[in-house]
User: Which sequence fits this backbone?
């Protein structure tokens, strides 16, 4: 005898099959819900495996977010930490270039995306790895872009990390919101600014934006803060140097004839003033260093080309200030209370 479906009497007296076949539409909904659940679980697992997640933002473009993100990651790696960078900038991703990974492709295994390894073993995931050709801009509609970001967060096999630094496009856009909603337990955001007034006004917006994201501000970094000129002359010579803004800086060479003078190309101290105004920490200033520009072009980051130089030292100071803001103390290890 052929199997007949079991029927159940509903309260209304009608009978319905106990295990009705789902319609194609229901089947699709179930698959989508399952995929979403799996991604959510994966994000939670990723959240657990990465001790610290730090977002790097600015209100204004071109102030040095990607330079700061890569610099922080390398400085942390220099300290021996396991570090990753997630480059969320879809329209202008340049982190791979700065990390010496230009032209690299992503490696996918068992449906998981494996990050590329850049300088000092830093793991890198970037939208640039998906681009066919770097001169063609990516034009993705909002929902597709945000879906791609979620996928990047949920499907990447980072392994265990001490720090994940997340680099964003400029402005208070949807990307930070999507990341903040997708990735659990973000420690906070670092706001990058240059010293000029216009950049400072925009960074004030970023600080207000953090409140709507419910992500704390770890502090403000002032980038391109001053340009130091070093030279030698006869010991004890006093030099008068014409500085921007019509100022004259006076310096005297030391006993070995060495002198150094710092020119405030864009003025200085604005980052500190913004931090004070909003009651958030000032994390430090990074010098204007043409080595960053060269590093962006030739793929050897300043911290790699001069690991003990003044710029690397300035990054180490900013890293220390950030670690002081994190709940588990300066060395990134967990404190047991
Ligand atoms: N401290 C610095 N000294 C000298 N040049 C710098 C410094 N920081 C960044 N630059 C240069 O400024 C340019 C912009 O830097 P970067 O790409 O890091 O900015 P961004 O804020 O990420 O830009 P975008 O908003 O387009 O993402 C680059 O050419 C970079 O090399
Ligand atoms: Mg950038």
Assistant:
């Amino acid at each position: 005898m052929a199997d007949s479906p079991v029927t159940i009497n509903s309260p209304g007296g009608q009978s319905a099959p106990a295990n009705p076949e789902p319609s194609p539409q229901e089947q699709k909904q179930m698959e989508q819900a399952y995929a979403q659940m799996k991604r959510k679980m994966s994000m939670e697992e990723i959240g657990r495996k990465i001790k610290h997640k730090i977002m790097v933002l600015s209100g204004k473009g071109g102030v040095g977010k990607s330079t700061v993100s890569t610099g922080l990651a390398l400085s942390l790696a220099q300290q021996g930490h396991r570090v990753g960078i997630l480059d969320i900038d879809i329209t202008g991703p340049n982190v791979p270039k700065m990390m010496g990974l230009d032209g690299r492709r992503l490696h996918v295994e068992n449906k998981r995306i494996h990050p590329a390894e850049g300088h000092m073993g830093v793991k890198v995931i970037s939208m640039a790895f998906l681009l066919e050709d770097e001169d063609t801009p990516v034009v993705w509609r909002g929902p597709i872009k945000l879906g791609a970001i979620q996928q990047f967060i949920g499907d990447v096999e980072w392994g265990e990390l001490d720090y994940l630094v997340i680099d964003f496009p400029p402005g208070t856009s949807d990307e930070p919101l999507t990341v903040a909603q997708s990735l659990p337990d973000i420690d906070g955001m670092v706001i990058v600014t240059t010293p000029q007034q216009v950049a400072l006004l925009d960074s004030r917006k970023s600080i207000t934006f953090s409140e709507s994201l419910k992500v704390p501000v770890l502090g403000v970094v002032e980038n391109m803060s001053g340009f130091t000129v070093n030279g030698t002359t006869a010991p004890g010579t006093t030099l008068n140097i014409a500085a921007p803004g019509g100022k004259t800086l006076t310096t005297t060479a030391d006993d070995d004839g060495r002198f150094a003078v710092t020119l405030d190309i864009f003025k200085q101290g604005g980052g500190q003033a913004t931090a004070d105004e909003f009651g958030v920490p000032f994390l430090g200033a990074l010098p204007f260093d043409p080595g960053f520009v060269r590093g962006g072009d030739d793929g050897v980051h300043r911290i790699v080309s001069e690991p003990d130089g003044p710029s690397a030292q300035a990054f180490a100071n900013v890293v220390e200030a950030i670690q002081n803001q994190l709940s588990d103390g300066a060395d990134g290890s967990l404190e047991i209370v």
